[in-house]
Write a structure and sequence with these properties.
alpha/beta, homodimer
């Protein structure tokens, strides 16, 4: 019997409210330069401290030892889906990040405007990093002239600078394909090919990419410097079992940024629009309290500060979050998990593989007798260091949603 | 997608020096008799202490909970190969330990001189533990008369007391076979058989063993008490993916004892000959610094003292190691892992299953704020208690050798 089948068999109807609160990139490193304190350790967090006393703590491995996840695998893991089993292509992630409402079967490609010479050789893979406004203008030009190829709908969305995405919406399409990108200057744009040569849907998709190039290149021919483009990460939206079917929990997403709304939608969470700050997200939780069982609440600013290598900003983001927590507590969720989707150490200016700390609070979480929620304290917690994909299972257990296994 | 495939896909070229330093059998138990201190805890280790402050710590499970590994599985695990997937026969380990330079396809058997009665019944499985010199004399006798069987080359090497190994080097040979050993006195030596009856290479090998007995027994017939012999663990050198291909790291082995050089060679590490002490090994590391990316440095004396149950000697071995560390630091490796291949608790006089402590140091290892490297401290480290096969992956991550997984 598979473990998932066992969980499923034992799952009871929920009679509790569960909140998964993600401080993006929360985990960090203690370094000599910061007196061996992480931002979480340096921050003033009276509300987290009070919660900690009656909580269990631990650390979570987002994907596997040493693997640094992007936001896609990071969140899929948090949602309880093995990131190795359920892979989301970069094109799909990029489209989600730009707020495209994807449908099942959509194939997405991330694209760069580029500069080509007279022979079609790539001379600048980023077209001199054209301003975002130029990108928007060029995408509008393409969008106006290319709405369909055969019976396939084409959706083009501009990103920042030279970046954009192309979504192919039609029947019988599939990725992944090879890239239309030589990955270095001085070479022509390669023709894309199916990753699996026997897959007819990938073959059809490769033909569509070729047709898209035929239609789009003449439109850009006189542009400078963006007279061409590259396409990468061409993949379809993967089939993922719905969160509600998997956990018998009715889920809602309270996120500000499109990427995280999109990732939540991938697993079928209901996207709640409106809130623009963590205080507003918590307020909205209060009003939606009766409508859902499970709330995914996403806070971005810890990751942003980590990416910028800004220790003070990360500490401040944590303190701002802490200050908003009393709003959530007005209708306290029965099960609260507070964690990150990965670590974003300030010293590394980016995501990392270091296990993120996690705090789990419920009437039956037990207490690890820790006065604060910190990386170092979490090392000693009763949850241990475990794969992130088990967090929702632990939350379900704390919600008393699992029957006993065997007599 | 398999995890190994993911690691492989994400692996970047190294731009760092990595050192895996193995104090054999390092882990130990705190007992009342030694005031609840392990040898590592009792030892004076100023250099390890200083390193510890800026390192991560944890403990590693060599194979699986409760499994006590020999040196083979212990080291294969450390080298990142699942010891269950990659099994090395005892004959191969024994041959490596005696310094035989094995080639791909070699089949090795460990053998004992034994005493047989007139009817061929085993009356002493160890021939009264004959002195090593007698063993050497008998092996010389056999070697002189049996150089080949058919087109298969026969290599015979003496070990300690009644022990020796036989290596069969030829084409189309494979193990494993059943043992030519009744495992108790009072029975005849059984004929060896293929473990897999459909395997033609094993059948051929079983015939060679029979022929070897036919050739060798008459030569020993008049010897007393060693007029016969037993053969066990008959197996070929397994096919193991090369370390350099697997990790994109050019590896060197700095070991003193043949067994560990042999294990390193099994995965394709370059064996550096010469050094006879840990100080000399570290000195040689300095001169070889530019020639390799990865250095496996093996220190035997912790295990020896553990096997002897000699607490004071194990403590002293750790202190001697610590005293030599400043040599290594003259050209500090970017990533340093210090650990054992397993525990060898003094109180147990042998290898054990208890997870060995591990220290991991790099500019991005973070600090677990531990002032010393000890078993008890390692229990609280951010690395947790994890399977040893992931250590190299963590070292690669610390060397910034992994691209981000997903967007």
């Amino acid at each position: 019997m598979s473990l998932d089948a066992l969980y499923s068999e034992l799952t009871l109807k929920p009679n509790a409210k569960l909140a998964l609160i993600v401080l993006d990139g929360l985990g960090d490193l203690a370094t000599k330069e910061q007196s061996y304190l992480t931002p979480l350790e340096a921050a003033f967090t009276p509300n987290l401290d009070a919660l900690s006393k009656n909580s269990a703590q631990g650390r979570m491995i987002p994907v596997a030892p040493g693997i640094t996840p992007g936001s896609g695998p990071g969140h899929l893991g948090l949602f309880g889906y093995d990131p190795l089993e359920f892979q989301v292509g970069r094109g799909v992630i990029e489209a989600l990040g730009l707020g495209v409402e994807l449908k099942a079967g959509d194939v997405c490609a991330r694209a760069n405007f580029a500069t080509l010479d007279a022979k079609g050789i790539v001379t600048d893979r980023r077209a001199g990093r054209i301003p975002t406004e130029t990108c928007e203008k060029l995408v509008a030009l393409l969008s106006a002239k290319i709405k369909k190829i055969g019976d396939t709908q084409i959706i083009i969305k501009p990103g920042k600078e030279h970046r954009f995405v192309v979504v192919f919406r039609g029947k019988g399409l599939e990725g992944p394909l090879t890239d239309a990108d030589p990955n270095r200057e001085g070479y022509a744009v390669p023709t894309v090919k199916p990753r699996d040569h026997k897959n007819a849907k990938q073959k059809k998709m490769a033909g569509l990419i070729a047709d898209f190039y035929k239609a789009a290149l003449p439109i850009l021919a006189k542009e400078k410097p963006a007279n061409g483009f590259l396409m990468r990460g061409i993949a379809h939206q993967p089939e993922i079992p719905l969160f509600e079917d998997r956990y018998k929990l009715k889920p809602a997403c309270l996120a500000v940024y499109p990427m995280y709304k999109g990732l939540a939608q991938l697993v079928g969470m209901k996207k709640i629009e409106g809130p623009q700050s963590i205080a507003e997200q918590f307020e909205r939780y209060l009003t939606e309290y009766n409508n859902y069982d499970f709330f995914f609440i996403h806070y971005k600013y810890t990751d942003k500060a980590g990416e910028d290598g800004n220790f003070a900003a990360k500490k401040k983001a944590i303190e701002d979050f802490d200050a908003a927590l009393p709003i959530l507590f007005k209708k306290r969720p029965d099960v609260i998990a507070i964690t990150g989707d990965h670590s974003t150490p300030c010293a590394m200016h980016g995501h990392s593989w270091h296990p993120q700390p996690v705090l789990l609070n419920s009437s039956v979480s037990g207490s690890d007798k820790l006065d604060r929620f910190t990386e170092t304290g979490a090392n000693n917690g009763s949850l241990g260091i475990f794969p992130a994909k088990f967090l929702i299972r632990l939350m379900q257990a704390n919600a008393k949603m699992f029957d006993k296994f065997g007599a």
